[in-house]
Amino acid sequence: QLVESGGGSVLPGGSLRLSCKASAYIPVGYCLAWIRQVSGKNREGVARLTAGWTVTGYGDPVKGRFTISRDNAKNTVYLQMNSLKPEDTGIYYCAAARKACGSVGWIEGSFEHWGQGTQVTVS
Question: Among 37, 58, 62, 97, who pairs with 91 as Cys (CB 3.0-4.6 Å)?
Answer without folding.
Answer: 37
